């Protein structure tokens, strides 16, 4: 009995620890993303707004998991000392489900919108729109099912016999359908960037790196696939005990998806830090002209672009997507874009001012 108690306590601690990690990391990454979009490139788009809302839902989901673990999620029913703790665990479970669903929906929408910015071929855009529509439709269906499976809804956590719930078998079937379709959508978001980038005219290593960065959003496919065999645990009478791994995979999927979908937006920050470190290193032994950080950013007046062409990668437009990253010194456009910042649409003419 003591071994079982220790196992249950360990499961609660695992849920608590994983929830803390994937509450903190997505918040940090998305905060950095907002800093880059607002302060560095000054182009805050729809994908950024949607991902920001997604991290709010992810935070609510993680908080529900934390509170649930403190009240006993991960334990067997016989280990609970009061029925009140069971009620609180089931309430946290009920609240966490829509938080998770909307977090994943918004996270995938944000990633798809980001990919639309660099999509040229029509069939690529069609695939992305289908992924977005499928994600929203099936996400809303599973949300309604999970929210309204008991009437009145409080019967889900009170279990006082004053209401009724639908049989668990249809819920499990919908989980399988939702998990399979979600994995397929994640796979599309992971593979499509390879087709978007591979024919662009840039160095092979840069091309591979760009493929990896843009494909990170599809890594949640792994969690979606791994989760499928554990869906049957939802049918168990000891759902709070047996579904702990299910909950952990939910938390990881949502958090990793937000992190992976935001890493590509932090490239300007990485370049700023790299160029700042390089400037500090090269200035040792000689008197620097200025120590101001603003010297790392090229002046807006140092070059001009044709009308309709933007040097910033704006998320909310379908214009020509170019990335502006802080360079070492002002100069021409060709001087600022190094090998890791090549244009995603080669062949676009850019004229320089005299």
Structure, described:
By secondary structure, this protein is mainly alpha-helical. The protein folds into 2 domains: 2-265, Up-down Bundle (Rhopdopsin 7-helix transmembrane proteins); 268-282 and 289-341, no CATH class. It is 63% helix and 1% strand. It has 12 helices and 2 strands, in the order H-H-H-H-E-H-E-H-H-H-H-H-H-H. Strands 1-2 form a two-stranded antiparallel sheet. Helix 3 (83-116) packs parallel to helix 10 (244-263).
Features:
Rhopdopsin 7-helix transmembrane proteins
Instruction: Tell me the structural class.
Output: mainly alpha
In CATH, the architecture of the largest domain is: Up-down Bundle
Spans where pLDDT lies below 50 across 5 or more residues? 1-5, 288-306, 308-354
Largest sheet: 2 strands, antiparallel
Estimated helix fraction: 55-70%
What is the distance, rounded to the nearest whole angstrom, between the alpha carbons of the first and last residues?
82 Å
SSE pattern: HHHHEHEHHHHHHH
Predict the CATH topology of the largest domain: Rhopdopsin 7-helix transmembrane proteins
